[in-house]
């Protein structure tokens, strides 16, 4: 059944004048805009400064998005580590500038916005403060799709009266959806569990851009038939299938889709919003958005984009990674593998590492390749190829094998588990049940440089870089870290202009070497 039908006015009858005043569709697809979070995280290493978002925010507020994802993921880390910004300030400022648009964040379950499991007292405090600074919708995911790692965050979100969106990481063990693990039944079952846990909506989070158009149709159709809550499809453009998959999802009745403004779209980011808006003209799923307003915001992005150009990956001509269609390894993970091999002067062994990555992932119970499991599997694969299989095992891999990250989708290879853990018995409970509270300890340790609960949480999640930031914030240490300067941080537009003038002189032969 195709959910896309003719609208009250056909696309062929929409003149330039009529487009702006076109009647509202009966079942408009809602748009979650990712430009201020995943858009620049995927294309520019999360380096967009808050001041540039503030400049654009009033115009973005006029777009009529269902929500805007502005926080979470890597933004908390990068803001204080490389930009010298208080991460709590961003949603607080944007909420004032975009009062009509719900703000959304990505929460890594019990990992929050860091890379380890945190005790429940930190989760409760973090969610409460995130709601306080303006987050309305919390998209919660777990790297191994263990719903137990949602429990604490979900309770805290509901307690604050906010929207809990339960996310399921989309993954594959073969080129298309199916097989013994990541099949239709798996995703529907997980979605029903999250709905029963109180999820206000369900998101299929395709972080690697692997979902194919027909699989998107089949999956969304099944979810709509089985769920009572709205369904959101989040996919990336990495493999080149993104826009096609969103259109098929719209046909199947998806409620919400994630897109970015075109300057921060495509590549390993998301489908661009503007073409999708026009594609749905004249249908009952017309978004109702004004493409001229979207274009205006896109042009504002283009004005500040040169600041960030050094973070854009231009190592390949193609803006998509067709390799992902072959080996199902996300583009970002491939980049990390290449970087590790370059450091070890072993780039010629990339093909072996790719094969070993698939083998390690199978032995580790086929986890979705998303932070932090992609790093755990990738590092282990590199070590296995260069040093010997499981001769060296990282602390994180050991913790994963022992159940410290939760229960993976499939059973971990018993022989590998025995090799790594020796006589240690893996845990089967929710990992956070074994963690002692940390909030009071963090308050005591940070009392010399943390002035409020939000400061304490920066320190609790990132003790080293968090303490450095807070000491600078309050003038205890006035030294500006090198991490806050280029090439780690963006240049200014003036610096970019000077650089361009210098390059032009060199090309023209006007600049002689000394």
Quick structural gist:
It contains 22 helices and 8 strands. With 514 residues, it is of the alpha/beta class.
Major sheet characteristics: 8 strands, parallel, barrel
Oligomer designation: single chain
Mean pLDDT: 94
* Beta-strand share of residues: 5-15%
Order of helices and strands: HEHHEHHEHEHEHEHEHEHHHHHHHHHHHH
Number of strands: 8
Radius of gyration: 23 Å
> What's the overall geometry?
globular
Strand order of the largest sheet: 1-2-3-4-5-6-7-8
SSE class: alpha/beta
Helix content: 40-55%
- Termini Cα gap: 71 Å
Tally the helices: what do you get?
A: 22
Low-confidence segments, ≥5 residues, pLDDT <50? none
Give an account of the 3D structure.
- With 514 residues, the chain is an alpha/beta fold.
- Helix content is 44%, strand content 8%.
- The chain contains 22 helices and eight strands.
- It has an eight-stranded parallel barrel with strand order 1-2-3-4-5-6-7-8, surrounded by six helices.
- Helix 9 (213-226) links the parallel strand 6 (201-206) and strand 7 (231-235).
- Helix 3 (50-61) packs antiparallel against helix 12 (291-304), helix 8 (184-196) runs parallel beside helix 9 and helix 20 (453-461) packs antiparallel against helix 21.
- It is globular and about 75 Å long.
- The N and C termini lie far apart (71 Å).
């Amino acid at each position: 059944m195709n959910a896309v039908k003719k609208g009250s006015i056909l696309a062929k009858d929409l003149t330039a004048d009529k487009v702006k005043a076109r009647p509202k569709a009966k079942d408009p697809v809602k748009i979650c805009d990712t430009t201020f979070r995943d858009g620049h995280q995927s294309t520019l290493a999360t380096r967009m400064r808050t001041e540039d978002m503030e400049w654009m925010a009033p115009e973005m507020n006029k777009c009529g998005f269902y929500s805007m994802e502005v926080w979470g993921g890597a933004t908390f880390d990068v803001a204080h580590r490389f930009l010298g910004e208080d991460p709590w300030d961003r949603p607080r400022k944007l909420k004032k500038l975009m009062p009509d648009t719900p703000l959304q964040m990505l929460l890594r379950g019990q990992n929050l916005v860091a890379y380890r499991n945190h005790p429940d007292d930190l989760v409760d405090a973090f969610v409460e403060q995130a709601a306080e600074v303006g987050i309305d919708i919390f998209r919660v995911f777990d790297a191994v799709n263990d719903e137990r790692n949602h429990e604490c965050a979900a309770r805290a979100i509901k307690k604050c009266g906010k929207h809990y969106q339960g996310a399921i990481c989309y993954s594959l063990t073969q080129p298309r959806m199916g097989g013994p693990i990541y099949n239709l039944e798996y995703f529907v079952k997980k979605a029903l569990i999250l709905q029963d846990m109180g999820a206000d909506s369900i998101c299929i989070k395709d972080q690697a851009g692997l979902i194919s158009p027909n699989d998107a149709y089949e999956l969304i159709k099944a979810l709509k038939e089985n769920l009572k809550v709205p369904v959101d499809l989040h996919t990336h453009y990495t493999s080149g299938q993104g826009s096609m998959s969103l259109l098929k999802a719209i046909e199947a009745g998806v409620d919400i889709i994630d897109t970015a403004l075109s300057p921060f779209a495509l590549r390993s980011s998301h489908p661009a919003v503007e073409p999708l808006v026009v594609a749905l003209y004249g249908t009952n799923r017309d978004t109702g958005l004004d493409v001229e307003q979207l274009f205006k915001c896109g042009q504002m992005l283009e004005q500040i984009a040169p600041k960030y150009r050094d973070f854009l990956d231009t190592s390949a001509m193609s803006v998509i990674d067709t390799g992902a269609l072959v080996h199902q390894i996300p583009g970002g993970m491939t980049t990390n593998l290449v970087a590790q091999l370059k450091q070890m002067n072993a780039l010629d062994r990339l093909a072996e590492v790719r094969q070993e990555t698939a083998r390690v992932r199978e032995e580790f119970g086929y986890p979705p390749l998303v932070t932090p499991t992609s790093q755990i599997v990738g590092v282990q694969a590199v070590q296995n190829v260069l040093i010997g299989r499981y001769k060296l095992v990282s602390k994180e891999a050991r913790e994963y094998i022992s159940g410290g990250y939760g229960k993976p989708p499939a059973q971990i290879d018993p022989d590998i588990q025995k090799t790594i853990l020796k006589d240690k018995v893996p845990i089967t409970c929710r990992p956070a049940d074994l963690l002692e509270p940390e909030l009071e300890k963090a308050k005591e340790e940070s009392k010399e440089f943390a002035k409020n609960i939000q400061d304490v949480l920066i320190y609790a999640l990132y003790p080293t870089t968090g303490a450095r930031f807070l000491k600078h914030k309050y003038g205890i240490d006035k030294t500006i870290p090198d991490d806050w300067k280029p090439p780690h941080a963006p240049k200014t537009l003036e610096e970019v202009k000077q650089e361009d003038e210098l390059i032009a002189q060199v090309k023209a032969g006007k600049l002689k070497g000394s």
